[in-house]
Amino acid sequence: MTDRRTFLCEDFEISYEDTKKGWSMPYSHHHTNYEIYILLSGERLVTIGDITYRVKAGMASLFESNISHRSVGDTDYTGICIHFSKVYLE
Q: Exposure of 6 by Cβ count < 10 A (0-12 exposed, 13-18 middle, 19+ buried)?
């Protein structure tokens, strides 16, 4: 997976992901920050807590702070990942 950070500060971060052979997170994880994941191309199975969603190009997923999540798939995909803290919203 290619991961390029394009903007970063203490409470806000955007990265661009580009994968040519598919990639699956090896485990569920969580962040203290909120996360919005926008899938630009491809298709992924995204699990948030105990619920799995089929996410396709043009769709977005929101991961709340400290909620376990995971993304799996075997196709090429690109996406934008945005992390931000509650402090950033205030």
A: exposed
The model's pTM? 0.82
b/e 27-66 (16+ beta carbons within 10 angstroms → b): eeeeeebbbebebeebbbebbbeeeeeebeeebebebeee
Q: What is the pLDDT of residues 2-52, one digit of tens each?
A: 556 566 677 888 888 888 887 788 789 998 999 999 999 999 999 999 999
Residue 87 backbone class (left: φ over 0; alpha: ψ -120 to 50; beta: rest): alpha
CB 55 within 8 A of CB 61: yes
Whether 60 and 88 have beta carbons less than 8 Å apart is answered as: no
**DSSP code at position 89:** H
